[in-house]
Amino acid sequence: MNSKILGKKKGLRTKRKLRIRSHCNGTITKPRITVFRSNRYFYAQAIDDLRGYTLAALDSRKLNVGNTKSDSYKIGTEFANILLNKNIKEVVFDRNGYLYHGVVASFADGLRSNGIVL
Q1: Considering only CA atoms, which of 29, 61, 19, 92 is closest in space to residue 111?
Q2: Residue 73: which residues within 8 A CB-CB, separation 6 or more?
Q3: Nearest CA-CA partner of 102 in 40, 37, 13
Q4: Among 90, 89, 94, 60, residue whose Cα is nearest residue 76
Q5: Contact, 92 vs 30, CB < 8 A?
Q6: Do residues 73 and 104 make contact, with C-beta atoms less than 8 angstroms apart?
Q7: Rounded mean pLDDT, 26-35
């Protein structure tokens, strides 16, 4: 792809990201779960926006998995266990400008299957 097309794609994702972030804010009892996916790895973190702290974080490199739907489901289940150990049962899901499809949806399903309310 040439740089003009890549710049347009990046700009559109940034607009989606800002539009989503205007609707969701995290607190200590209901943190914001944000995701980032690269071509190789998948990252997730729980953020308290009022204090600006990251409460929990996990990525696929720590689990030695990649960036597929089945791997992101595993990441979701592990992340749900981390959140439940910190007594967090309800979260706000921030898809960070990505479409709610494929890897992102599989991660959310992994969270839901272990008792986290999105």
Answers
A1: 92
A2: 106, 107, 109, 110
A3: 37
A4: 60
A5: yes
A6: no
A7: 90
Instruction: Give the residue from 50, 30, 40 showing the smallest Cα distance to 93.
Output: 30
Q: Specify whether the CB–CB gap between 33 and 56 falls below 8 A.
A: no
CA–CA gap between residue 33 and residue 42 (Å, rounded):
13
The pTM of the full predicted model, rounded to 2 decimals, is 0.89
Show Cβ contacts of residue 88 under 8 Å, excluding neighbours closer than 6 positions: 29, 30, 31, 46, 55, 56, 116
Side-chain-side CA neighbours of residue 56 (13 Å): 23
The percent of residues above 70 in pLDDT, for the chain, comes to 99
List CB contacts of 102: < 8 A, sequence separation 6 or more. Answer: 69
Would you state the pLDDT for residue 109?
Answer: 97
pLDDT band for position 59 (cuts 50, 70, 90): very high
